[in-house]
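Lecture notes, unit on protein representations.

Consider one protein chain, 71 amino acids long.
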Amino acid sequence: MHSSDDFPIGNVIFTSAGEALSKITEQHKLEGYEEAVKKYLKSKGVSVEEESSYNVTVFRDGVQVTKKNPV
């Protein structure tokens, strides 16, 4: 358990085993998780935007990131 002012940090490993498990397990939404992540990031000086300022296009051999035109 952690306090509301401290967000635990861990390592994420993406493996074929994890992919296989995701197909046979249920996904559960954690209420308040996204807001807790935003609060933590902001406390570390990270700017958090509700809408992305960039377009991301994924290709077979790479990724293209372009800035959206201002409205």
